[in-house]
Structures are given as C-alpha cells and as structure tokens.
Prior knowledge:
Chain A has 234 residues and is mainly α. Helices cover 76% and strands 0% of the residues of chain A. In chain A, helix 1 crosses helix 11 (201-227) and helix 4 (74-85) packs across helix 5. The model of chain A has no long low-confidence stretch (mean pLDDT 89). With 355 residues, chain B is of the alpha+beta class. Chain B has 2 domains: 2-225, Rossmann fold (3-Layer(aba) Sandwich), CATH 3.40.50.300; 236-351, CATH 2.40.50.100. Chain B is built from 10 helices and 20 strands. In chain B, strand 16 and strand 17 (307-313) form a beta hairpin. Chain B is globular, with a radius of gyration of 24 Å. At the A-B interface, helix 6 and helix 7 of A face strand 6 and helix 3 of B.
Amino acid sequence: MYFILEGFRKGAVLIFGLNSEVLAILKLSLFVSIAATFVAVCIGVPLGSVIAIKKFPLKKIIIALINTGMGLPPVVVGLFVVLFLSRNGPFGFLQWLYTPKGMVLAQVIIATPLITGLSLAAVQSVEPKFYRQILALGATTRQSICVLLKEIRLSVLAAVIAGFGSIISEVGAVMMVGGNIKGQTRVLTTATVLETNMGNFDVAIALGLVLLTMSFIVNLALTFIQQHKVRPNG
Amino acid sequence: MVKISNLNLEYSKRFSLSVDNLVIEEGKIFTIIGPNGAGKTTLLNVIAMFDRPQGGRVEVFGRDVSDGKNSLSFRRQMSFVFSQPYLLNKTVYENVLLPLRLRGFADGKRAEEMLDLFKITHLRNDNAALLSQGERHRVTLARAFVSNPKLLLLDEPFSSLDRRYKESLIGDLRGIIRSNRITAIFVTQDHAEALSLADSMAVMKDGKILQQGRPQDIFTKPASKEAADFVGVETIVEGVITKKEENLCFIKAADNILEAVSIYNAGDDVFACIRPEDVVISRHSETTSARNHFKARIVKIEPWGLEYKLNLNCGFDLTASVTKQSIEGLGLKTGQDIFASFKATAIHLIKREGG
C-alpha cells in the first residue's frame, strides 16, 4: 500500500514540477489524439449521414460492416498498419512507420467506424420526414445534411466524444506502429505501460494521472459545446 | 397548372397509385379528400419529386417532373407543408428565414413580413420547439410562404389542431393563398376543411381518383358508392328503376318505392343516395310536396357534431340529422314510430355496374 501512495506523491511532484519529459509526452499524445479525432470526424460524420439518408443496394451489409468496425481490436489494426507501412509494404514509400503520422493513421482507422456508426444511428433516429421537410424547403443534399447535423448535434458530439475516448485510451496500435521511441513516438499510454513494466510506479502513476486529467479536460470542453443551448424539457 | 396523366406508382405489393387524368388550374386551391391509405400523400410526394413514378407524366407549370431530374430548381419554386410541423430548434424568426438562407439570400424584411402576415410577430424570438401546436403550424405556414412559392402542397396541415384554432388558421390561409394567386393542393380527410378551402376537388381511394369536380357536385352528386360513402352520404340504398315518367324515376328498394329525379332509365340498377340533412321528420303523416314519405321507427339517436343523428328503419335503413331542439320539441325517443320525408330531388342516383 505504501508504494502506491508513494507513487501518487512522486507522480504529483512530476506533474507540478512540469517535468520536461512528461510535458513532451503529453504534447505528442494531445497532437496524435486530436489529429486522429479530427480526421475521423471529417470522414465519419458525413459518411454516416449519407449512408443513413441515401437508399442504395447492399446498404444493410455496409451498415453491418461499419458496426463490426466499431469493435475493431486495436492490435489487429496495429498489425495491418505495420504491414502496410513497413519498408516492403504497399505504403512503405511513405516512411510513416514509427512516426506520429503512422500513429494518427492507426487511430483514425480505429475511431472512424465508431464515429461513422454512431453518426449513422443518430441520423437514422430522426424521423425521415424531417429530412424530407428540409429538402422541400429548397435545400441541396449538402445543406440538408448540415441542417440535420446541427439539429442532432447532441448525438453527433456524443459520437465525437466516444471517438476521442477510444483514441486517447488506446495503447496496442500506437505501440506497434509508433514503437514507443523516446522523444519521438512515446505517448502517455505507451509510456505508462513501459514505466509499469520497468517497476517505475511513481512515473507510471504520474502519467496515468496526466492521461486522466487530459481526457477529462478535452471531454469537458466537448461536453460544454454539446450542452450549449440544449432545448429544455417540457 | 398541374397536369397528371396515366400516372402509375407501385408503392408496395399492397398499394399502388394510379391516376389517369388530373388537372389543377393555376391560381386555384385544389383539395384532395379520401380516407387513410387512399394515396393522397403519395400523390403529393410524386408531385414534389420525392417519389418517382414508374409510368405516366406529371407536368407542373409546363415541366415534366416525373423524371426526377433537377429536383432542386423545381423544389425552390414550391413549398410543402407536412401534417407534422417540423421546425428547427431555433427561434421562430430563424425558422421562417431558413428557406431564404438555403437560397442564398437571407432577406430579413421578407421574413418579418411573413411573421406579421401569420400573426406571429410576438413569437419572433421564441424557440420554435417550445411553442404550442397551433403556433407551430402558423410558423410552418409562414415558412412555406416566405420563399413566394408558385405551388403550395399542404398535407393535412390542420389535423392536430382544435376546431376553433383550425377555423381561424384556415380563414387566414384562404385569404393569403387567394390574394397571392398561388396554386395550392390541399390534402385532407376533413369535409369541413375541404369545403372551406377548395375551388375544385377530388375524392381518392385505394390509390385512384374516384371523382373530381366542383365541391358542391362531389358532395351532392357523388359518382360512385365509394365516393358517396366518403363524402358523408349516410343512406345508400340498392335498388332498380322499375318505371320512369319524364324525369321522375320509381326505384324499387327492398319493399319500398322511392321516387327520384334522374337521367337513368327503367331497368337500370342504381344506388339511391340520401344525405341526412335532406330528410324531414314529423310525428304525424302530413301532406307535403315531398314525393317520398315513409313511416319509420327510430332505431338509435346519437350526437353528431352540433346535431343529432337518427338511425331509422323504414323498410330500409335511413339516416336523418336533426337539432337538439327538434328532438325535444317532437319528443323523439328510441323505438318510437314517426314519419320521414324527402324530396325526389334530394335523392342522387348512382348507376350500379353489373347490378
């Protein structure tokens, strides 16, 4: 029990002492997570909306594939991203393996189906006539999707929050694709795993606390946006 | 002008829309009445290019819209008001302005004019989601008119409103449509709504137009038993014309002879339609000019809107409408024997095919 408490104490010292290594890891974690969330949102929200609205062949199968993708095992994603980005892989020429770009790519692959699936469900939960009404007012397809997404922004931001949550807490894929290289691709999750394995519990606890705090602040910001001008009940 | 010819849409195995010929004049209010599932809304969806027919032609202001092409430019010339008022979670003003924003010119002055026209200026800054149902309907109508549409499609927009509010809104709407000379297609199940707005009218059932014409003709001279059923003809009696003297037909119905003015001939199988308001009730047999006079027994008395409905048995089932004062004045009770009369001109005959 003592070593756990000691770990918390040392962790606090590391955080409030603004340890440069911890700060660098924090900075990279934020960059990778936010960049990946941004890209996944840009792909997932419009894609989910269009799939929800449009009628096309094999729609149910595509939705089933997206739903399957919502539970993609990160290590499997990591494995395939490594294979594709490795020197002999089809995208080896990009030289993204063991770089933050490769880590962002892996996390985009993990978060996109999740955001797509949740956006799709959110749009489908709106009565079809509502969408028709917007079109009848003279909207283009793009305008109508924008109007619709603004109306269901609570659900869309819930999808963004879920996507960010899946990315910030992910360790398997970033470990495999990034390699956990000190000063280059080490992020909070991989660093926590490493320090725990080395028995440096104080540093691991400090990193864990930083990860939790960072996740809380980003989610708090998203929640404030989500709950802004929420329609009162009654 | 809206012209529909040979329209065919197989919606599902159980329902298809089939309209041979329908013409809606420019600047007029055309009302489509019919029961649930008649295909009224589907027809509006075809006109609005939401549903694409498998065959036929739908011409709106000289342009065929059945091909599904250039739907945006067409929809920007029309407005479609749904039965449910779908509004954004924004202020009333923002909702009314939306069609103009979508067209790229957010003319606030025009939106303000619409708020004024539909008497909702005082709600301008209120959240539309928090309005009463009646207020929400006024907002949807203001939003429908803000883009100055040439064609207005109204799909049972008053179905969820109480009678008083409905009458006030219909009165306002009628004036606005007429003064702007907008071509409007109004779908409803409510006869009073239909009559108060329509310049011309059609009755639909099972995806087909049963009859179209002037409202008074449809309500007094329905062309088929189904149309008669829907337009409130309570008494429809099967019979055969046994004799004709000039225009007066003698119709054998059950064990009775009805006398009606009609163009049909002896030997024709017909339905005799009698509206409840055309039946006169008396306690004693009286000599009047009415050609049809029967002894009848009151089977049931029930409230019917502002009046009462008497179900009578006079050899055939006959329905009459009377006021509360008449029931009290004549002391009418269930099981009582009375006399029912109606004129020969009050009977509308529909020829029965394959009698």
